[in-house]
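Retro notes (design track)

What went well: tokenization of the new backbones is finally stable.
What didn't: we kept losing track of which sequence belonged to which structure.
Fix going forward: every design gets posted as structure first, then sequence, in one message. First example under the new rule, 457 residues:
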């Protein structure tokens, strides 16, 4: 109830903001709009009509709007950018974080990006160009250049005084990194240690020399897992010779984890890049078609298997009724094991426990699931098919073997793919399902063919 009341109050407040904007009351609009939380500012701005959005741009300075722009999704940024005047955009970029500017300029026309960089302040432009030079999805590409460096000889009092001047421009001040004369990373001081330290105490006396850092060319996903493992708010980025070049903060890591999770989900569903709802139907179909065509060829193998066991089916047509059950259950079991394997590889738990432990566990799980399903199915078949226990035995044994194999395949395939340094998520659900369909049918018809002579219909 309190949450609903709070939401109503916010909606009423936003109506007041829009009223001041529509009436072009500069003072009241700025007072009310800038009092909103940045997230509420962004949401409100995006809901405005284009004419009112232009009015906001007139009422806010480029520096004030920079905070909003860098918080927008890329799609919204690309839509809004053409509406900004040239000078307004340049000034806005000068006040944005270098990593956010680099991310945006990498998505627009290269000539426009170069033009913007040439018009920006020299120091800001240099920072952005340094970040854009790194390969995508590396630590260097997602790091920020706005951070605090400390000299070992500085005192606590001197650092606190300096923070009053430099902190507003920094991405974070909770960790303060210490460098030597050659900019090599030598230590780290937490803000808490700095506050409680005696004013005359030096940084060298306060700092910890055991600094966890990442290299500039490390994969962004590895960096994200490191920050998650250590519960860091930020991690320093260094060159191979330990020279400090930037930091990666936890908010950047959240974006990375979301991006990687989206990619894994796309791969898992065999639709990489096609889950973005902003894509046209043609673009989505183009991205999804290759996987579906590949899986279609796998489906032809299924048809071929059925054709090879045509004589078995002609003798006992009733076997065909259980084909979807065998295929579907085996495919579902394999997909479940696939999810366990991909999750284990993503979190690093397989590295800690070894690969054989999860394989043995999934084999045991598959055997138990197969046994349970076999017993249940045999009872059901014997009841519905007038005590035909032989038929029940064939279907039950086939399901037991198929589920046991499917669980192992769902675990092993991602492990093999990972060994080749390929994202294990490409062992997608549809791929594993189709593969287990084929194996399930092979098991089913093999068992049926061997035992067919004992079936009494």
């Amino acid at each position: 109830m309190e949450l609903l009341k709070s939401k109503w109050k916010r909606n009423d407040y936003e109506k007041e903001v829009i009223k001041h904007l529509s009436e072009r009351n500069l003072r009241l609009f700025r007072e009310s709009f800038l009092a909103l939380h940045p997230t509420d500012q962004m949401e409100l701005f995006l809901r405005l009509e284009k004419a009112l959005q232009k009015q906001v741009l007139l009422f806010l300075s480029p520096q004030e709007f920079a905070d909003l722009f860098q918080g927008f999704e890329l799609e919204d940024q690309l839509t809004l950018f053409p509406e900004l005047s040239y000078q307004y955009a340049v000034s806005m970029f000068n006040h944005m974080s270098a990593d956010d500017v680099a991310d945006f300029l990498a998505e627009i026309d290269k000539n426009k990006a170069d033009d913007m960089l040439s018009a920006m302040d020299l120091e800001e432009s240099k920072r952005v160009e340094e970040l854009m030079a790194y390969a995508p999805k590396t630590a260097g590409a997602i790091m920020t250049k706005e951070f605090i460096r400390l000299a070992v000889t500085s005192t606590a009092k001197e650092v606190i005084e300096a923070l009053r001047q430099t902190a507003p421009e920094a991405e974070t001040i909770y960790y303060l990194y210490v460098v030597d004369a050659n900019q090599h990373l030598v230590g780290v001081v937490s803000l808490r240690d700095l506050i409680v330290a005696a004013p005359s105490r030096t940084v060298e006396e306060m700092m910890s020399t055991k600094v966890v850092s990442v290299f500039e060319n490390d994969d962004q996903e590895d960096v994200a897992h490191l920050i998650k493992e250590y519960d860091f708010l930020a991690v320093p980025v260094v060159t191979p010779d330990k020279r400090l070049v930037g930091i990666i903060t936890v908010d950047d890591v959240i974006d990375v984890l979301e991006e990687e999770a989206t990619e894994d989900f796309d791969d898992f569903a065999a639709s990489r890049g096609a889950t973005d709802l902003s894509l046209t139907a043609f673009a989505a179909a183009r991205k999804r078609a290759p996987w579906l065509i590949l899986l279609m060829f796998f489906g032809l193998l299924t048809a071929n298997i059925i054709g090879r066991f045509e004589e078995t089916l002609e003798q006992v047509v009733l076997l065909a009724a259980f084909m979807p059950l065998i295929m579907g259950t085996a495919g579902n079991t394999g997909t479940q094991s696939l999810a366990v394997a991909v999750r284990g590889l993503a979190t690093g738990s397989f590295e800690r426990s070894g690969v054989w432990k999860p394989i043995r566990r999934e084999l045991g799980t598959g055997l138990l699931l197969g046994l349970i399903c076999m017993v249940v199915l045999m009872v059901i078949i014997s009841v519905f098919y007038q005590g035909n226990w032989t038929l029940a035995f064939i279907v039950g044994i086939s399901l037991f073997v198929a589920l046991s194999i499917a669980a192992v395949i769902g675990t092993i395939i991602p492990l093999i793919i990972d060994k080749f340094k390929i994202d294990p998520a490409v062992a997608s659900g549809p791929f594993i399902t189709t593969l287990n369909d084929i194996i399930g049918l092979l098991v089913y018809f093999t068992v049926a063919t061997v035992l067919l002579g004992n079936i009494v219909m």
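Added context from the reviewer: The chain has three domains: 2-137, 149-249, 281-454.
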